[in-house]
Amino acid sequence: MSRVFDEAVVVGVAAFHEGAEPPSDDEVFRRLRTAGVQEWLAERLIGFLPLAFGRRVLEGVALADTFLDGGTVRPLASEPVYLAAAAAAEVAGRDDIERIGLRSAEFHAVNQALHAGSQMTDLAIGPVTFPDPLPPVEDGDGGVPSPAAIFAAFLKGHGLRVDGPEAGTLRVDEASFSARLIAHPSPMDGVLMAQVDVAVDHPEMAEPWMVESCAGVGPTWREAIHQAMVMFERGVVHPIVEALLSRGAAADQVSWERYDHPSGAFDLCLGAQLTLFTADPVPSAEPLLDRLLTELREVPLSRAVHALRVFTCHRDGELINNELLLDGEPWEAGARVVAATAPPLPAGMVGQRLFGLLVPAPD
Fold first, then answer.
1. pLDDT digit string (tens) for 248-281?
2. Which InterPro entries match (predicted)?
3. Is 248 left (phi over 0), alpha (psi -120 to 50) or beta?
4. Which of 114, 158, 262, 358 ranks highest by number of CB atoms within 10 Å?
5. Is the link from the previous residue into 165 a cis peptide, with omega within 30 of 0?
6. Structural domains of the chain, with CATH
7. Residue 10 CB: number of other CB atoms within 10 A?
8. What is the pLDDT of residues 26-84, one digit of tens each?
9. Residue 174, number of CB atoms within 10 A of its CB
C-alpha cells in the first residue's frame, strides 16, 4: 500500500491541540468526525499519533515493531497512517510531543518503570494493544483530501502530463511542485481554516522554490481544502501553466501585457483578480498594478521569470494587511505604494489578490 496520509496527520495534530486543556480520546474523535474525517481514519489518528510522537522521547528503549489489532498481530509498517505519523514525529516540536506523545501507553509504561528504578536501556516494551479491532481501511482520502492530488488534477485538466506525487512532489517536464496543508486554529465554532502552501521550482525562474499560499474555510476539512485550492487555481495555477508549462493551455484564463523595464522588456502574464470578504462590486486593481509596475522599474531584474504577488485587506477603509512579494520575498517599496493608494471600498471588509509572472520578452 503506497498511500500517504500527511494531511490527515496535520488534521489529527490540530484536533489534539484544540482547547486549553488536553482533550480526551473521545473528544478528539468527536472533533475529527465533526470535521468530516471518516471513522476508520479518525480511529487510526487517535491511536497512532500518540504512539509515534511518544517514541520521540523513548530513545534507548527496545520498542516493538508490531501492534495488536484486537487479537491479531500486525506490523506497524503495514499501517500507512502510522508511517505518516512517524514521519511527522521526526520533525515535531516540543509542544506537539508534550501534548500528544506524552499521552501514549508506551510513554506511561516506561515512566512507571523508571520510577521503579529501571534504566531506559534495560527496558523492552511489548506491542501496543488496540482492544477493539480497527475499522477496515476504506478507499479514498478519509475526508482529508490531498492538496497535491488536487493540484495534479488541475494541471492534468490543462492537458499536461504530470508525474507523481512521489515523496510529496509533482513534476511536469522540468518543473517541480509540492503542496502542504497547514491547519489553523478555528476562527469560530463550526468553521475550519485550511492554508495550502504550494512551492514551485522551474529552471527559468529567478528564485528556486517560490511558495504561494491560499486559505479556505468550511465546516469540514474537505470543503476548506477545496476552497483554498479553487482560489489557488483561479489566481495562481493559470499563470504558472501559461507562462512556465505550456503557452496557450490556459490562454482564456490569463491576460498578457508588454512591460518595458530598464533591464529589458518582459511579458506580464496575469491571473484573475481575486476579491475576498465581500459580495459588493469591487473596482479593478489595474491602477494599483500600474503604479507597482512603475515602482518596479527601480529594481534591477535578471533575465529570468520573476513572480509578483499582491495581497491587501482593508477594513472600513483602513489597510490592515499589506503583503507584496517579489520572487517570494517581501518588497517594501511595493508595500509603500499600496499604503499610499486609496482603498477599493470605503466601508466593510475587502481583500484583493493578484499574481503574475514576468517573462523575459524575446529580443
1. 999 999 999 999 999 999 999 999 999 999 999 9
2. DUF6348
3. left
4. 358
5. yes
6. 6-130 (no CATH), 145-251 (3.30.160), 254-363 (no CATH)
7. 18
8. 999 999 999 999 999 999 999 999 999 999 999 889 999 999 999 899 999 999 999 99
9. 11
